[in-house]
Every structure is written in C-alpha cells, then in structure tokens.
C-alpha cells in the first residue's frame, strides 16, 4: 500500500512538472486587455504556437483597428465574434488575409480566442472569436482544416459569458451593441476598474 501511494505521488509530481514545462514561458506570450461596454477581458496570446496569428492580431491592436468595433455575431453556448464591424455595422477595411495556423496543436476549448475566417482556409483578417464552450468540431482535421486558436482568456470569462447571453436579433447581432472601447497590449491597458 505504501509503495502504491509513493508511486501515485511520483506520477503526480511528474505529470505536474510536465504540465508546467508545456506552459508558455513569459517571453512567449503577450497579454492584451480589452475594455468592452460589458466589462474587462484579458487575453494571453501564444506567440510560439501561433506566431502568424498573434502578429496579425497585434498589428490590428497597435493600429487601433479594434477600438470602437463591436461583437457583431453572438451565439449562446457557442462563441462571440468581433473585430470586423463598427457600431454602425459597416465592415472595416482590413489587411491581406493570413495563413491559417489551425494545425498548431491549440484547441478550440472554452475561453480560447481564434481567428474567424470564410470558407477559404487562408482567409482570416481582423475578425476573431472567443469560444464559450469546447467547440471540438472547429479543431484542425475534425471536419476541415479548422480555425486557428492563438490565445486564451485569463481574466474576464464572466464578461465573455455575459456577452454570449446577450439578446440578439437577425444574423445573431446583439440588440444592444457590445462595443470594444479600447484594446491594447497589457502594459498600456488601463483596466476599466482603475
């Protein structure tokens, strides 16, 4: 019995170490703050696993593209999508599309952020979505190439859930606009509560 307990403890220690060693190192991640009309969301972006998607997203962040955009597609128990339309529901101009990195090993699990795209595999530009549940059918190889996850929510999942539970009208557009007031790299991002 003592041997079994020792083995269990050893296996737990090894698995904990392995899990920690797979976590991204600080220089491999970027933190981004989103002040929305519903509350504050903080994202951790994974530069190592999704360098193209992260660089693309950050170029839109740094240019101010996301400021004043809305979550224009909100589907309860699925995802919330934003980054492409102003409050007037006019689509914003974008940079050229990027290569799809859905084969990077990151999964469309609850709380992850991924690049939205059209039916064309390499068509992602500025739009992104945050998964409000595990959406395994969006992963690489499940039904097609998949949708590239490039980060996760580390603060504010309750805000994401509130957005997901918003009343929507035609084409899943929230009845009351949900605005991204300010999106910045975290060093520059004052939290709404400050």
Automatic annotation (TrEMBL):
<dbReference type="Pfam" id="PF00160">
    <property type="entry name" value="Pro_isomerase"/>
</dbReference>
<comment type="function">
    <text>PPIases accelerate the folding of proteins. It catalyzes the cis-trans isomerization of proline imidic peptide bonds in oligopeptides.</text>
</comment>
<dbReference type="GO" id="GO:0006457">
    <property type="term" value="P:protein folding"/>
</dbReference>
<comment type="similarity">
    <text>Belongs to the cyclophilin-type PPIase family.</text>
</comment>
<dbReference type="InterPro" id="IPR002130">
    <property type="entry name" value="Cyclophilin-type_PPIase_dom"/>
</dbReference>
<feature type="domain" description="PPIase cyclophilin-type">
    <location>
        <begin position="35"/>
        <end position="185"/>
    </location>
</feature>
<dbReference type="InterPro" id="IPR029000">
    <property type="entry name" value="Cyclophilin-like_dom_sf"/>
</dbReference>
<dbReference type="InterPro" id="IPR044665">
    <property type="entry name" value="E_coli_cyclophilin_A-like"/>
</dbReference>
<protein>
    <recommendedName>
        <fullName>Peptidyl-prolyl cis-trans isomerase</fullName>
        <ecNumber>5.2.1.8</ecNumber>
    </recommendedName>
</protein>
<dbReference type="GO" id="GO:0003755">
    <property type="term" value="F:peptidyl-prolyl cis-trans isomerase activity"/>
</dbReference>
<keyword id="KW-0732">Signal</keyword>
<dbReference type="InterPro" id="IPR020892">
    <property type="entry name" value="Cyclophilin-type_PPIase_CS"/>
</dbReference>
<feature type="signal peptide">
    <location>
        <begin position="1"/>
        <end position="18"/>
    </location>
</feature>
<keyword id="KW-0697">Rotamase</keyword>
<keyword id="KW-0413">Isomerase</keyword>
């Amino acid at each position: 019995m003592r041997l079994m307990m020792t083995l269990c403890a050893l296996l737990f220690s090894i698995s904990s170490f392995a899990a920690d060693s797979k976590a991204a190192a600080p220089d491999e991640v970027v933190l981004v703050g989103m002040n929305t009309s519903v509350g504050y969301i903080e994202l951790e972006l994974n530069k190592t696993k999704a360098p193209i998607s992260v660089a693309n997203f950050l170029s839109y962040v740094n240019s101010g593209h996301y400021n004043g955009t809305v979550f224009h597609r909100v589907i309860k128990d699925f995802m919330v999508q934003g980054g492409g339309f102003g409050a007037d529901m006019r689509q914003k101009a974008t940079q050229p599309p990027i290569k799809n990195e859905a084969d990077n090993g990151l999964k469309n699990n609850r709380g992850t952020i991924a690049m939205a795209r059209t039916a064309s595999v390499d068509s992602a530009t500025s739009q992104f979505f945050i998964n409000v549940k595990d959406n395994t059918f969006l992963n690489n190889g499940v039904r097609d190439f998949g949708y590239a996850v490039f980060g996760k929510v580390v603060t504010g999942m309750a805000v994401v859930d509130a957005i997901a539970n918003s009343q929507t009208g035609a084409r899943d557009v929230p009845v009351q606009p949900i605005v991204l007031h300010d999106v910045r790299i975290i060093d520059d991002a004052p939290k709404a509560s400050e």
